[in-house]
Amino acid sequence: MDHCIVYLSSAVEPLEKADLSILLLQSRRDNIAANITGVLLYAHGSIIQALEGNKAVVEGLYKRIEKDYRHKNVTLVLSRPITQRLFSSWAMGYETMTTHQLDEITTLMSLVKQKKSISEATSDHIVLKLIRNFFKDTSYLMFHNS
């Protein structure tokens, strides 16, 4: 069974387009070799990333990210087994968010985490659906409105 980790972090310094391109090329190469899939959402130094794959491999990658000098305030949002990868087509999908979109996503994630009546499995599923839907919607718009 695969495992998924979602985390939030802040870049120590905002990443320029060239820095992001290099980071994404390296991540995609490494993720293909490790059979990891996922998506990275970025807005003005803020990062939301979902990683999917073998539990030990994904957890190892997350531990490296926690220690990576380019990140600060790394916060684990969820870590859970999954029966199906939501980003199976992406070694590392990427999308830029506006500050407003970032605020909406982090607010909804926070509300889901605080809601006591929702089971942990259900709330995790909502967090993943939120990220997946944002990524799919913006990717669709990007490719169809160009």
UniProtKB/TrEMBL annotation:
<protein>
    <submittedName>
        <fullName>BLUF domain-containing protein</fullName>
    </submittedName>
</protein>
<dbReference type="Pfam" id="PF04940">
    <property type="entry name" value="BLUF"/>
</dbReference>
<dbReference type="InterPro" id="IPR007024">
    <property type="entry name" value="BLUF_domain"/>
</dbReference>
<feature type="domain" description="BLUF">
    <location>
        <begin position="2"/>
        <end position="93"/>
    </location>
</feature>
<dbReference type="InterPro" id="IPR036046">
    <property type="entry name" value="Acylphosphatase-like_dom_sf"/>
</dbReference>
